[in-house]
Amino acid sequence: MKQLSRTRLAIVTAGAVAALFASNGMAMGMGGCMMGCTSGTTVIDPPRGAAFQDPPVMANLSATPGIVEVNLEAKLAPININGSVANLQTYNGTYPAPTIKLKQGDLLKVHFKNSLPDAGNNLMGQPRADTNLHTHGFHVSPEGNSDNVMLHFSRNQTFDYQYDLALHPGGNLNWYHPHAHGNAAEQVWAGQAGAIDVDDETTVLSGYETHIMVLKDISLSGGAPAAHTDSDFMNGKEGNVMMVNGKVNPVLAMRPGQVQRWKIVNASNARFYKLKLAGHNLNVVGTDGGLLDKPYAQSTVLLSPGERIDVLVKASTTKAYYKLTAEPYNRGAGASASQQITLLTANVTGTSLSQSLPTSVNPGAVRMAVPAGAVQRSLTLSMGMMGMMGGGMGMATINGIAFSETNGAIDAYTIPSLLNTYEVWTIYNNSMMDHPFHQHVNHAQVLSISGGDSTYASFYTTKPAWKDTVIVPRMGSIKLLVPVKDFTGMTMFHCHILEHEDMGMMGVWDIR
Ligand SMILES: [Cu+2]
């Protein structure tokens, strides 16, 4: 509990905390409640904070309709984290980074500048200042100056990215973060993440008050983000301050009977959020890849790192405070397995509004049948240790190969796909912790999920959702229907616990 005591969070421990296992390099995720949870839940219920604010909006330098042009600078900046000022790695000096607002079909130009300081090499042997940019969720080219994560930039380098969203579906929340192999985990942990909202202009949703929520956790040490250890790479690093848009337990005003639209991204390294709003359903209208056919009422929504959810909330007619919590979810590692955390408080107050949920949202959203002749592939995600006796180094693989990059030469399990085909990927998790599987460029539909959270599995295997990040439950599996469309080039698929990606749980998707 020592690390928790550094925060100002009010902590009430119900029962024993034996389930808060001690992290060490040999644990390999054998923590949480995996062996049967007999202890209680740790309730983290900080006092209500300041009024909710959306993340800042990125300035658009272009006056031309259809073109959005932004300056994006990776740099250190002092940020107030729950009353303590720390030097975080930011984009443009804010935490979270500014939201880039786009319309369907826009051209996005990003003038990128790497102003990160020289801070030596990290545990992965990478210069800490090397970075790049990934636009998570974009259906765009992975080549050239588009969403090309093969590019890396040293400190003081600049680069002009350009993303043509002509073929990107509207109506989804995306996000941006660094994707330089061996550096991604530390840099996202240290603050480099922001939302990208691609507007749907769906009139049925346009009348609702809409908010963006970036979920992120951090621990501080010595006025900076706490350093990664070997065991953090094995388990995925969770913080002890959990925030919505960089604030602890902000208060969001809602009028009785009002319907609000919340677009939520999990921009944390490893923490899963099983979201629940007291006294209310979360009516899901969209997922990673766009809008659903209609709202689906859920009592909880599980969001792993990288996933997004778009929900409508109809406020109670009873004026009161209602807590949005992250309920305990055991991903096979980390303290979150036994924590219940108040993330935000909805304050239902003021004069009533009687708004109703739409009956239909996006009639074009349908579940696809698997086309005849779809190529079948299987991927196995594994975790292990090298040099067990000597303290060792963690290793994470896909089909037995840990992604590595030496002087530009890549060694990785490679999927060679042909453009304009469909594939079925069965992804097995041969380890004791969940891995959120993310593929770039193309969204997929989930055909089956074995293991894990039953609500999550039944939702994504029955609703017409397009996904770029799906939980592969520990010792379980998933099956995805993957369209290979519109773009050729070399891109990636990987675990979105970014520490695992840095340790090698990433492969190359070579689309020809
Ligand atoms: Cu993983």
Give the class-level CATH name of the domain at 375-511. Answer: Mainly Beta
Rg calculated over all Cα atoms = 21 Å
CATH-defined topology of the domain at 375-511:
Immunoglobulin-like
Count, helices: 6
Instruction: Say how many strands there are.
Output: 35
Q: Please, what is the average pLDDT?
A: 91
Which percent band covers the strand fraction? 35-45%
For the record, the CATH architecture of the domain at 375-511 stands as Sandwich
Largest sheet, strands/sense/barrel:
7 strands, mixed
The parts where pLDDT drops under 50 for at least 5 residues are 1-38
**So, the CATH homologous superfamily of the domain at 375-511?**
Cupredoxins -  blue copper proteins
Structural category: mainly beta
End-to-end distance: 51 Å
Notes on the protein architecture:
There is one protein chain. This protein has 512 residues and is mostly beta strands. It has a domain at 375-511: Immunoglobulin-like (Sandwich). Helix content is 6%, strand content 42%. It has six helices and 35 strands. The site of copper (II) ion (CU) has 5 residues, from loops. Residues 1-27 form the signal peptide. Residues 78-201, 208-338, 411-510 form the Plastocyanin-like domain. InterPro entries: Cu-oxidase-like_N, Cu-oxidase_2nd, Cu-oxidase_C, Cu-oxidase_fam, Cu_oxidase_Cu_BS, Cupredoxin. It comes from Methylomonas aurea. This is Multicopper oxidase family protein.
